[in-house]
Model the fold of this input.
Amino acid sequence: MNRFTSMALALVMSLCVSAPAFASEGSFAAVPSEEVVTPHPRLIAQSLYKTNTDKTNSVAANPDDGDYLRFYYRNDTEYACKAYLIRIDDTRETVVGSMAVPKEDQNQAIFFCAGAGSGTYKIKVENTENGGLVSGYAALAQYLDLTDMPDY
Done:
């Protein structure tokens, strides 16, 4: 009976995570809805303004607040850019999520990984079209589970 329960649980868990097919390194990012609204900034809420690349301050997630992180970037320039969610472990930095943000638009993505709530994170944004200005607003919020997240 224990083996059947384990197999059933594994099947359910794999179906829950299989929807986002573009998962990387044990994580996944969700495609945002048409109308993206800034998530409530529980960890990071910072304006960025720098040539080529800019990043937010680092922030430590709270293990009690869950393993789901939603990161957001509003691009205020006329050029497309790419935003990265970076986990910092001692001196090593690992990209755990990324998303493209069209010119004068916004985007968000969700990162999940067991133990994500005990990490330190920052958001890095690069101007991918011409290496010019990075100007916009970055936010990072942490949630217990997907049902804890407000619908946007």
Residues 15-28 have pLDDT under 50 and may be disordered. The chain is about 10% helix and 45% strand.
